[in-house]
Amino acid sequence: MPGAPRAVSRLPGVTSLASLIKAYDVRGVTPDPFSPAVARAIGAAFAEVVGGPRVVIGQDMRPSGPELVAAFAEGVTSRGVDVVRIGLCSTDGLYHASGALDVPGAMFTASHNPAEYNGIKMCHAGARPVGQDTGLTEIRRLAESYLDDGLPAPAATRGTVSDHEMLAEYAAFLRGLVDLSGLRPLKVVVDAGNGMAGLTAPAVLGEAAGLPALPLDVVPLFFELDGSFPNHEANPLEPANLIDLQAAVVANGADIGLAFDGDADRCFVIDERGAAVSPSAITALVGLREVARERAAGRTPTVIRNLITSAAVPDLLEAAGARVVRTRVGHSFIKAQMAEHDAVFGGEHSAHYYFRDFFFADTGMLAAMHVLAALGEARRADGSGATLSELAEAYEPYVASGEINSRVADVAAARQRVVDAYVTREEAGPVTVDELDGLTVSHWDGQPRWWFNLRASNTEPLLRLNVEAADEDVMEKVRDDVLSLVRQDGEEQP
């Protein structure tokens, strides 16, 4: 069994992994600085800090994955901990394995980052997150010491490595959470972006895992697993990466389009017209389904949402009888709040969706299944099937700017200009202000209704602005006013 973790102080001139190991995960360019030697050291440190008799490891389709996984596994087994490799999978597939097997896990992926990147998302047993306050800081310190001084002497009994295919179990688990078998037939275009949805979508939505056929006509787009991303970046948060899907939905007369990022833990939705449905609207739609299920079981539901999601989310969910908890941006904060409040569901503006029934972890595929179920059940007054645009309209009553980045020379000075204009001047009006995550200024209780959040990036000299208002003219006015303050010294969008 691994020994107790030991603290290692860093001295000038010794190895630092600060550029690789961030607040939530490992992420960097391969093979330099993210090399097999680094993966081996992190694996050994992970085994020491997280412990347990065995660890499950998965990987996405990036070419650097197999070598990094082998090195990480070597580090883990050197500490006497067994390794179970599940091979190619989505990140939520790894979370399922960690939850189903009740063992710690490590997923090798760089999510939506370009091809030259790779990374590791780690979790405790039961898919509980490993972040800077839950083991990642200590993992980094130990890994740095191992790179400087070499790995400790191997455990008396080295761990073993075995392989276990879990795609079919993952698909069956999700099918057991949302029943799609009785829906009206739907045509669905799925853009995998050459990422892991090319493996998981046929298994969950089709028959590739040996499950019965669903009333879904799936039109595949870029299902070939290719970590060089030859068609477009696997980052649906960027509008340019949705163009192919939007065109395919319209060309095929499809009912809906689904776009997944590289490791398929996020899902973006396109309606039948080719228009994007906001993640806030999806949060409200899925949240209402989960709230209704909780209330039917006689329980009072709690839903978590980050502070960038639309004001429509708490409006709709609270009206349905839910308690809505507002939290900071970032999956470690959402997951912590999910567990603390035993929340049935959580949603972020970035299209991460979390489910109590999925080990409090995020899964884009389960969110997609809920949307498909809602669309398949939706009816017009005359009994005919409603379109997704008709269904989504109720969940998008307000107008949002989306996230706008500004590169600034002096983040503090730019932020202070906004504070001076909106908070401290007497004519600013009846606003509420909080600093839960950046600066949030709200005029939602007055007229006209608007709010904005201004957050600094953790890694770059950027300020991120999100604005929402009850109508478009007001949103544009607030957006342009705040941007003029932020960019006063010539700063501009990167």
Structure, described:
The chain is an alpha/beta fold and 494 residues long. It has 4 domains: 26-165, Alpha-D-Glucose-1,6-Bisphosphate, subunit A, domain 3 (Alpha-D-Glucose-1,6-Bisphosphate, Chain A, domain 3, 3-Layer(aba) Sandwich), CATH 3.40.120.10; 169-179 and 186-273, Alpha-D-Glucose-1,6-Bisphosphate, Chain A, domain 3, CATH 3.40.120; 279-362, Alpha-D-Glucose-1,6-Bisphosphate, Chain A, domain 3, CATH 3.40.120.10; 400-486, TATA-Binding Protein, CATH 3.30.310.50. It is 34% helix and 20% strand. It contains 14 helices and 22 strands. The chain has helices at residues 36-50, 65-78, 91-101, 132-149, 167-175, 197-204, 243-251, 279-296, 312-319, 331-341, 364-377, 388-393, 411-424, 472-486, and strands at residues 26-29, 54-59, 82-88, 105-108, 117-123, 161-163, 186-191, 216-221, 256-260, 267-270, 276-277, 302-306, 323-327, 345-347, 353-355, 361-362, 399-400, 404-407, 432-434, 439-442, 450-456, 462-469. The strands form 4 sheets. Strands 1-5-4-2-3-6 form a 6-stranded mixed sheet, with helices on both faces. A hairpin with a 5-residue loop joins strand 21 and strand 22 (462-469). Helix 1 (36-50) crosses helix 4. The protein starts with 25 loop residues before the first strand and ends in an 8-residue tail after the last helix. Mean pLDDT is 93; it is low at 1-12.
